[in-house]
Amino acid sequence: MDQKYEALFTPWKIGNVEIKNRIVMCPMGGTSLFGWFELTGCHFDKEAAKLFLERAKNNVGLIIPGIAPLRDTFWGKWLWQNPKMFEELKVFMDEIHKTGAKLFIQLTAGMGRSWAITELVAPLHKNKFTRALVKPIIGNLLLI
Ligand SMILES: Cc1cc2nc3c(=O)[nH]c(=O)nc-3n(C[C@H](O)[C@H](O)[C@H](O)COP(=O)(O)O)c2cc1C
Fold first, then answer.
1. How far is the CA of 133 from the centre of ligand 1 (A)?
2. Which pLDDT band, with edges at 50, 70 and 90, does 139 fall under?
3. What is the pLDDT of residues 103-118, one digit of tens each?
4. Are residues 20 and 75 both part of a single domain?
5. pLDDT tens-digit series, residues 49-85
6. Are residues 90 and 21 in the same domain?
7. Which residues form the pocket of ligand 1, taking CB atoms under 6 Å from any ligand atom?
8. Atom 27 (ligand 1): residue with closest C-alpha?
9. Minimal CA–CA distance to 25: which of 99, 101, 91?
10. Which pTM does this prediction carry?
């Protein structure tokens, strides 16, 4: 290997967690492990898990799936209300750790300013009737 790439394959630490190399898969919305933006409600997303395990087997040191809001969007169910999802996560994490990779879950309490109510949505929000209609969805995203 060209010497200039060697640093990429040296370990580093976040707190007391050691990451085996400098290759990090950044979080990208749409790759959440918890399917929070689907009509089926939050669940362990086997397709996303397949993708991450494949990446881990191909020597990614740290994987960060896309954000995991504390409540799913369409039903307002809290993640903790789905214990089966966490049982499946545990089995999956054992597989990830066998490869030597680490995986962080990026929990979020909502979308914050990046999903502020836009000009398009504001009129819906001002009208009492449409506000009641959109609140379950917008409310779960912004946790309002
Ligand atoms: C489609 C998309 C979704 C993203 N989702 C997240 C996310 O869920 N959480 C996060 O912290 N960053 C997210 N990011 C930011 C990326 O992880 C990354 O930091 C950013 O894209 C800068 O890296 P780049 O210059 O290689 O694109 C997202 C970026 C993109 C393009």
1. 31
2. low
3. 999 998 877 666 666 7
4. yes
5. 999 999 999 999 999 999 888 888 777 788 999 999 9
6. yes
7. 26-29, 66-67, 106
8. 26
9. 101
10. 0.84
Same domain, 73 and 24: yes
Q: Are 60 and 25 in contact (CB under 8 A)?
A: yes
Q: What tokens appear for 136 in the block?
A: 């379950």
Shared-domain flag, residues 103 and 127: no
Burial (CB count <10 Å: 0-12, 13-18, 19+), residue 127:
exposed
Range of the domain at 35: 3-109
CA of 29 to the centre of ligand 1 (A): 7
Looking only at Cα atoms, what is the longest distance across the chain? 64
Same domain, 101 and 116: no
Name the band, by pLDDT with cuts 50, 70 and 90, for residue 129.
confident
The best mutation among 26, 33, 64 to test binding of ligand 1, ranked by most ligand atoms within 8 Å of the C-beta, falls on 26
